[in-house]
Structures are given as C-alpha cells and as structure tokens.
Amino acid sequence: MLTKDLLRVTRRGGGYRPQFTDEGDNRLAARVLGVYQGHVDETRADLQAALTSLEREADDFKLVRGFASLLDREATFETRAAVDPERTRETVFGVAAERNVVTADERDAALAAAAERLGVDAASVDESLYADREQRQVLVAFDSRWTPDELRRQYDLSLAQTALFDATEVRVLTNDPKAFVSAVKRLRLMYEIRKTPDGREVVVTGPDALFRTSRRYGTRFARLLRTLVKTSDWRLEATVDDRGTERTLELDASDLSVPGTDPLAEPAFDSGVEADFATRFRSLDLDWTLVREPEPLESGAHVVIPDFSFDYDHAPFRVFFEIMGFWTPEYVEKKLSRLADLEDVELLVAVDESLGVGEDLEALDYRAIPYTGTVRLKDVRDALRRYEDDLVAESAASLPEDLRPGADVTTFAALAEEYGVSEDAVEGKSFPEHERVGRTLVRPTVLDALEGRVEAEMPLSEAEEVLAEEGITEASALLSRLGYRVEWDGLSGGVLRTK
Amino acid sequence: MTRLSFEEGTVRLTDPPADLDLAWVERDPRTKTARAPGHRYADLRDALDAAGVEYEDGVLDAPALDLTTSYELRDYQQAALDAWRENGDRGVLELPTGSGKTVVAIAAIAALDTPTLVVVPTIDLLDQWRRELEAEFDCDLGQFGGGVQEFGPLTVSTYDSAYLRADEVGDRFGLVVFDEVHHLGGEGYRDIARLLAAPARMGLTATFERPDGAHEVVADLVGPLVYDVSVDDLAGEHLAAYDIKRVTVSLTDEEREEYEAAQGTFTDYLASSNLQLRSGSDYQKLVMRSGNDPRAREALLAKQRARDVMMHADAKVDELEAILDRHREDRVIVFTASTDLVYRLSERFLIPAITHETGASERRTILRRFRDGTYSRVVAANVLDEGVDVPDANVGVVLSGSGSEREFTQRLGRVLRPKGTTADEDTPPEDVAATGGATARADVTPTQDDLPATRAGRAVLYEVVTEETAEERVAARRR
C-alpha cells in the first residue's frame, strides 16, 4: 500500500481507475532502483535530493515517489556518529544550560567543555549532536528483491490497494469464494450475497455502513485485495467516496499479479473424496461442466459455499453439489441447519452412508446420493439425467411443433445451437419444408438438383465436392438417400454404385 | 426476548420488538437483526425502558471500579462538574488552559466509578494524562498510541489510535473523555464518538468554536456546551496575566532576492493559468492540479521555497539571540512551525529540542528537566501546541506562526505561568495556578533595555514575524 498522497487515478468517464504502469515505465523503475543502489553510504537527505531531481525529469513525480516508497522498505539506514547522539545532547544541553549559552562565543566554549567531558574533539560533538535525525542517517544497505518489471507489478498492486482506501463498499466475484469469505470474516467485515447475471457476488461492507457510507473500512478492503489476487479469476467492483462524489472502481485478474507467485487456478480440495470425484467426473464427456466451489449461497445470515456445481452446457442451468463426508455430529447438525435456511436452489448432496441423514435431507427437498468410500459416478449421472430430461422437455416445449428453417440445408446441431437448446430438443419436431437425411435437413428442391448432378461410377471425392457446394457434409447418408452406395477402393477413396 | 449486544462499533438488537420505531435503529439484512450506531446505546436503553420492553443487555463489558480522588475542586471546577452531571453525564466544558480541566475529568471518573477512555491529541498530552491518572488512582492504566496498544480500565489514547480501535473496544468503557474536544469535529475523528457505546461523555476544550461549524456535530455526539468560563474571568485569580510583544524583522538582501524569485515563479504561474487564490479550496485545486501538471508542481515548490525563506530568515535567529540575552534569568520556551528551524535553533543555541522526531523517553526527559530547572530553555515544533503542561515558563517566543486563532491562543496558554510561582513534577499545574497571580521574585534582573524584562507576576510572549511578507499579514489578521 502507498500513502494516499501518492495515489494516481483517472476519473475519465466518471470512473475511478488506477493509473497502472506499462512496459514503458520499466526504464523509470530501473532508474529509481539505480538511485537507491548508487546511494549506499550516503545520507537520506542526499538520497532524497537525487530522487527529487529524478521527479523533475519524470512525467509524473508521484510515480517516482511510489516506486521509492516501495524500495525504501528494502533499504537499511543507520546513524553514524563519533559519540552516541542522545548522550551527546544530554551532555551538551547540560553544559549549555549551566552556562546559559546565547552568543556564538558562548556556544563554542560550551561545545569545547562538552567535548572534554565526552573525550572527543569539538567538531565531532557538533556533528554527533543530531546525527540520528532521519535526514542525516546513512543508507548502509540496499537489497532489492525486485527487478524493474517486478517493482512495477508490486507498484500496481500497491496502487490498486491505495485506490480502495476511500471505498465504502466492494462487490466481488471470485473463483475461490471460500478463501475470500474467510478473509472477510478475519478482517471483521460483513457480507451479503447478491444475485447478478454473472453469478452470485459477495457484497462487503462494515458494520457501521448501515448508518452512513463510511470510508473507515477502506484499508481492510485493500487487504482483501491481497487475498483476491492470489486466485486466477476474480472481478472486483468498489463504490468509492471521492471527496463526496460517488465513483466506481473496477478491477479484475488481468489488471494485477503478485510478483513471484502464480495465482491458484482452483481452490484446494478439502478432502480426498472431493478431489477423486472431480477427476473422475471430468474424464466423462457429459453435457455438464463441473465447477469447484462455484459461488456463495445465502443461508439466513450466513453463507454456504457448495463444493461443486454442474453447469448445463446448453442452457443457463446450475445444479449445486455438496459432498458431506464423515464429520462430527455437531458439524452435521450445523450443516443441516444451514441447508434448511438455504436460498431456493437445486442441490444434490452426496452423503456418507454412515451419517444416516439421507432422510433428513430428503425432508428438506434435496436429493441425497448415499455413498461409501467414493461417490459413484453413475448415481450422479442418474440424478443429473432427471434434470436433463426436464431441460430437454422444457426447451422442446418452448419451440413450435413444426420447424421451418430458412436455410435450404441445415443440421440438428446447427438448429439446436440457433435455438439455444440441446439436439434432443429439436430432434422430436417435424419439418414440413425439409426432408430429414441422417442428422441433416434438406429441402426437396435441393435433393432434386443433386439427383441430376450425382451419378453412378462417379468417384466419391467428386461427389463429396458436389455435396459440399450445397453445404452438406454428411455425405454417406445423403448418397444412400439418392440411391447410391460407395464401393471402397483401399483406404484412399471409392466409387459410387447404384444400390 | 430482545437482546442487545455490541458488535464492531454498533449495538446489535437480536429479536427486536416488532413495533420498535426509532429513527436511528435500522434493520440489518446482513445479519437478520436490527442495529443502532454505538453512540445511541444510552438513547436506545432509554427508549426501550420507556416503552416497557423487556430486554437482555449485553452491550457493555465494563465492570464498576472503586476510585477516589483527593482533589478539592475550585468553585468553577465544581460548577462545571455539576452542570455536566445535571445534563445526564454528557456535554462539553470550555475552560481556559491552565484552569485545571484535568481535575474536573478526574472528579467525573471518580464519581462514575466506571472504566474510562481518555482521548488526547498529542503524545505529550498522553504522557501527561498517564502521570496524572497514575498519581491519583490506584488502578491499571492502559494506553493506545505512542507505540503502545494496551487496554486498561483507565486507558489514555491518541485520537488516531482511538479512531483505529473504537469499533473494537467500544464496549469496554462507561465514560469517555475527549480532551481538546474540538478535534472531534474532524470528519474522520467523529467516528470515535460514533462507534463507542460509552453512555457518559465529557468534552474538554479551551476553544470550542470551530470555523467550520463542526462543533454542532460534537454537540450531537458528546453533548452540548454545558459550562464555560473565559480567560478574563479567571485571570488574576487563577491564571497569570501576560504581555504580548511583537517584533518585526527584515529579510537580508540575499534572502529578499531569493524570496522574490520564488514568489515570482508562483505568481507568474497563477497569472498565466488564470488561477486566483481566494480560499483554501482554491489552493486545494492548485495542489490537485500539480498531480499531473509539472508547471503547477513547480509553482507549488516555488511557493514552498518562498515560505521557507520567510520562516528561516536569519534575522529571526539574531532576534532570538537578543531575546535570549535579555531573558538570561528567565524560563523560555520557543515555538516555531518548522522542524528544520527547530533543529537549527537547537544547534545554534544548544537548547534541547522537541519535535515529532523526538522519541518518547527523550521527550519526557527534556520536559522533566525543564520542570525541575535543569534546563531553563526549550525549543519546540508544534507538538507542544496543545494542552502540554509546561508549568513554569514565563517567556514564550513564537517564530513564524500560522495565523489560526486557536493555535495562537493555545500557544499563549502555554506561557500563562508568571515567574516566581513554583511547581515540581508531582504537583499538577492547577496547584501552580492556585498559588495565585503575582509572587514577586527578589532577584529579577534589571535591564537597560527599553523593553522591560518580565514584570513580576506577568508572563511575556514574543511574536517574531518577517517584515512585508504574507506572514506579517497573518499576524495582522489576528489583531
């Protein structure tokens, strides 16, 4: 984090956007690093003078200072004095008070007397008097762990954190909601779950936010950002109180990275049962995509983050999936009570048979899938199949019974995509203007025309070209419909024969 | 049953009565409860009691103490305490520096026998309050600020630390005392009072008026002004009278040249960019502009250089030499706003310095030696501005003031101790004042100078300004 006076944001278009660095700033970063490296054994005042002249050359003095404030943490300063300065002051001020120093001559005499007591010469006393002032301390070591490029990235992260200082509320979508929510709790903040078109976001505020928009939680929001950037996929939106004007700050994973770390693509698994299930499920080719800890769900004043969700590939439909392993009775009880308060969602619960709570779950209207040892894929598939049937029926019902596609030639796959449904949903329809050939739909006029252009003894490759001109890729089914079979010639090609 | 508990600066109402209708109680969808700001706790209790609601109160974690004080309150101190108690243990007391504000607060703490948080603006005041509370009460002391974060039934905190910790410890105190309460008007510091649940609240100040009208906010959070007494009411009786001397010095030719050059760069920029500086907000605009306009930044830096020239004028150092020479027998405290100037003076005259850079223990040592007479002079930056107890300086010198009225009077207050009164470390300043006005000293040094040395029983304050500069106008505005 930087101090607020070093914040650089643009307010273009009413936004609040940190002015992140780009590769062009590497040179400046390198120069600031160089100034520190070149000032070992010099005083802080000299170092600062060098930085100030660099500030004047740079387009933006705040960027120079921002880099410097990060590098300052890597620098070691020490007091160098002939006599300990505090002891020097005690002696000098004591002597001066006895003699009531006013004039320059009196000063010299007092210094000489103090020097005698301290056993050094007067000039050393003069120099030691305030050698411990910050400005006069000496840079004794500078070990930066960053390259210019890393310094830049560290700066960007610090800058984004600083931009959050004036935030009054943050809203977050993340692929690791569990880690995020636990960071929220650790920082003594509060959260709510809000549904958005992109998923459930976590809205974070502080207790006092109920009564007034407050900037007092800004530094805690800044710390939350540290948790977020450790994951690979997140988006943050913050409401910022910019001197009385409300602005929106938007950040996502493409803006920031932590130097020297790779963000975690997926949250770590809590148990072997979960990890094992995920691996096995993903090896199947189903119409469902498995997502780890997908999003937080509201459960009364609490939050529940299911282990997985199954996202249907052909429609926006999500089934949550929780694996309840064997835990303490208290855990099970708490889990059940959370599930009882859960917002209205589709949820499957795989439950360790030894828990004996299947009935409790069914009573809550959740589908229980009992298991011992490992969750059986077949059971899960069966449970999903039930939704699939409904989804297919539902999307089929939403389409008219007779479909009249505009194209002369089309396929079930293309139609399904056009209507945004699964192929199963269009397959059962009738097509008054088209003839169905395999999984392709062809207008009779096209078939008539093809009949004239395709003939027996034609090489297969030639016939395929003719069909391709009409947009037909499913050659064998169509040729069969036209009354031909293919006599294969080795592996490379064949010739059409009348059936 | 309804239950009240403290949660991070707020009072949480679990199962609130359905018909509860208070403007400052809100439903909280996050926790499915109701909630009120911490400072409404006392009001909330009153409202629930009045409505005959039964409730369980788990807000405060502040077990009663058993405290006694040996202070005899003076008439006006007793009157101030009575007024505060009659107002339901809430309100602000306006008492001049040196009149014993601390004693009134100590009496209140003893009367309420409840864990108390004292909030103060500076580390020096923090040390001072600690000493006073330690001397008066047999009780563990806590401290937030100055590198220490330790809770005690009696805790002294800086405003900054209190701001950071109010939501966390807001349930541990039954009484909160805001010393120099006008600070609470600041936007951020208000949160301290808002987030604490302490039902009893006392504000202390020498100057309640804030130019921005924020004292109304203080009245809402701490209580109204319930008692005030002015310097004039007490002068001669409890406080010393004082004289002010204004000394004007000139810039050297070299300084003048440097000043004009820098000032010229600044005014040229204003003229070329059509900017006029009529108010603080205009200046703020310029500061903002300097963020991405290098010329604006150059102009600001030039303005700073001009100010530095003015503040550090060599003639001021010469003038101070003359003043110190004139007051060789007196106890002198020198103020200036510039830290660098403090160190320059310290090195030149070999006078101990106190600034924000001075460590806590060294600062204590210096103040102790100043009190016990080992040192008769000290030079300080604005860290000593408020309420710090420097019991028996009788000469004050202000070099380059900033022109705000409050700062001026409070600096003045620092030297309101006439020569000849005595105090040692263990005696609070109030007793110094109690010895009353003039006690002539036999050994007052006669001088040939037409500026007389301090008359017995009167303190003297020098204000040294640089001629024909903005600074002089600042000084003139005060008159």
UniProtKB/TrEMBL annotation, chain A:
It comes from the Archaea. InterPro entries: Bax1. Pfam families: DUF790. PANTHER family: DUF790 FAMILY PROTEIN, VNG6129C. This is DUF790 family protein. It comes from Halomarina salina.
TrEMBL record, chain B:
Residues 417-455 are annotated as: Disordered. It catalyses: Couples ATP hydrolysis with the unwinding of duplex DNA by translocating in the 3'-5' direction; ATP + H2O = ADP + phosphate + H(+). It holds the Pfam family XPB_DRD. Residues 319-472 form the Helicase C-terminal domain. GO terms for molecular function: ATP binding; catalytic activity, acting on DNA; helicase activity; hydrolase activity. Its EC number is 5.6.2.4. InterPro entries: ATP-dep_DNA_Helicase, ERCC3_RAD25_C, Helicase/UvrB_N, Helicase_ATP-bd, Helicase_C-like, P-loop_NTPase, XPB_DRD. The keyword rRNA-binding does not apply. Residues 82-226 form the Helicase ATP-binding domain. SUPFAM superfamilies: P-loop containing nucleoside triphosphate hydrolases. Keywords: ATP-binding, Helicase, Hydrolase, Isomerase, Nucleotide-binding. It comes from the Archaea. Belongs to the helicase family. RAD25/XPB subfamily. PANTHER family: GENERAL TRANSCRIPTION AND DNA REPAIR FACTOR IIH HELICASE SUBUNIT XPB, RAD25/XP-B DNA REPAIR HELICASE. This is DNA 3'-5' helicase.
